[in-house]
């Protein structure tokens, strides 16, 4: 079988993305099955995680697979000097799928080149986070009824935020209009702006973040300022509270507008916003379960048809 790793989904066709969305929809209808009975999923988290690791593990468990792995690399032989290559080769002896988060950009690509076992990139440094993008697409599709022609406002740490990088690249097929709202220190990196230009993606950069400047958004994608990526913590202190979404800023929003956030939240969305009909970030995280069920099946060669015909559903 060809290596079906998911390092990035930015180059997936519309058909492929729709197929994955439909798979996620099937799993939302029936999340509990035995379709992966006998399979082993390894989760290797070299960086901290709550949602990504637990939702991948829940996805595997709910589909009947068994899970091995680690949440803290300090408990592994990497502390004795074992290389990433050797770790991946070892785990490939045990597991059918490897889900990996690593602090180094390009680590997932590298891992996919040293094994035939499919790798799913669960975040590589400030580069990409394709499974988050899949659940973001699913959340947008569910709440807007379409992925086409949407105005997507990305707010906060657009420099280090791998979720916004992944999302903007994958959305290019759907004629989006992006608004990048960030302090100068955390603005969208040049390479992604060049990507927008090259691919005909409309974008506007702004620094104002007010009731009026977000009134036209379909999706307000808030992000956390990523303390762990800063080399200068004084700079982090300067920018960490640059943009805070308050409930009183939602008065002019479009009725369909939804607030997304990959989470964890630190201080960028005040708690009062949670009660707004526009808040969708907790449902978004729940959607991660269905999206990740779809991704695990996809790398194992299980198709939408297989899932529709699946007789292992547990009601
Ligand atoms: N959204 C996300 O990646 O969350 P975790 O870091 O908790 O996995």
Any idea what the CATH superfamily of the largest domain is called? Aspartate/ornithine carbamoyltransferase
Strand percentage, roughly? 5-15%
Total number of strands? 9
Number of domains: 2
Care to describe what's here?
By secondary structure, the protein is α/β, with parallel strands linked by helices. 34% of the residues lie in helices and 14% in strands. The protein has helices at 14-29, 51-62, 84-92, 107-113, 130-144, 162-170, 190-198, 233-239, 281-299, 304-308, and strands spanning 40-45, 66-70, 97-102, 119-124, 151-155, 177-181, 202-206, 219-222, 258-260. Helix 5 crosses helix 6 (162-170). Bound molecules: phosphoric acid mono(formamide)ester (CP). Phosphoric acid mono(formamide)ester (CP) is lined by residues 49-52, 123, 132, 262-264.
């Amino acid at each position: 079988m060809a290596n079906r790793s998911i390092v990035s989904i930015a180059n997936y066709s519309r058909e492929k993305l729709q197929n994955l969305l439909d798979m996620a929809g099937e799993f939302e209808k029936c999340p509990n099955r035995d379709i992966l009975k006998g399979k082993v999923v390894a989760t290797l988290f070299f960086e901290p995680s709550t949602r990504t690791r637990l939702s991948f593990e829940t996805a595997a468990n709910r589909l009947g697979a068994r899970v091995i792995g680690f949440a803290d690399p300090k408990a592994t032989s990497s502390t004795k000097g074992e290389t990433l290559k050797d770790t991946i080769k070892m785990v490939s002896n045990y597991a059918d799928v490897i889900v990996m988060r690593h602090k180094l950009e390009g680590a997932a690509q590298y891992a996919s080149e040293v094994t035939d076992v499919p790798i799913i990139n669960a975040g590589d440094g400030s580069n990409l986070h394709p499974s988050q993008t899949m659940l973001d697409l699913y959340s947008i599709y569910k709440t807007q009824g379409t992925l086409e022609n949407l105005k997507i406002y990305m707010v906060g740490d657009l420099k280090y935020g791998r979720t916004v990088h992944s999302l903007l690249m994958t959305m290019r097929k759907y004629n989006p209009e992006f608004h990048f709202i960030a302090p100068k220190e955390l603005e969208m990196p040049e390479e992604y702006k060049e990507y927008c230009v090259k691919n005909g993606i409309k974008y506007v950069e702004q620094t104002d973040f007010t009731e009026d400047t977000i009134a036209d958004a379909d999706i307000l994608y808030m992000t956390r300022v990523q303390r762990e990526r800063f080399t200068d913590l004084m700079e982090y202190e300067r920018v960490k509270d640059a943009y805070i979404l308050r409930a009183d800023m939602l008065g002019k929003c479009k009725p369909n507008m939804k607030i997304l956030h990959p989470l964890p939240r630190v201080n960028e969305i005040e708690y009062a916003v949670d009660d707004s009909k526009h808040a969708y970030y907790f449902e978004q995280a729940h959607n991660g379960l269905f999206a990740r069920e779809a991704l695990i099946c996809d790398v194992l060669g299980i198709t939408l048809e297989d899932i529709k015909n699946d007789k292992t559903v547990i009601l």
